[in-house]
Amino acid sequence: MAANPQPANPSLITCAECGKEFIFITSAHLAKHNLTREEYLEKHPGVPLHTVEFIQKKRDIFADPVKGAGVRAGLAKGR
Prior knowledge:
Layout: E1 13-14, E2 21-22, H1 27-32, H2 37-43, H3 52-63, H4 65-76
C-alpha cells in the first residue's frame, strides 16, 4: 500500500496494510495484520488511526455534561 493512502470517501481513513476504509482503525483490525497500534504507527508514520470527524464527535460527547457523564460512568465500570 501507499505510505499515506487516500480514501475514496474523505470521511474515512484507509488502512495502510490492506486498503480497507474505516472511521477509525481498531486494535482488533490491526491484530489481523499481526500488528499492535504502536507497530502500525512505527511502520506507517504519519498515517492516522482515526478521522478528524471521529475525534471531534468524541470531544463533543465528553464536553456535554449529560452525555459525557454517562460515557465516563460506563468507562469506570469497564463498559
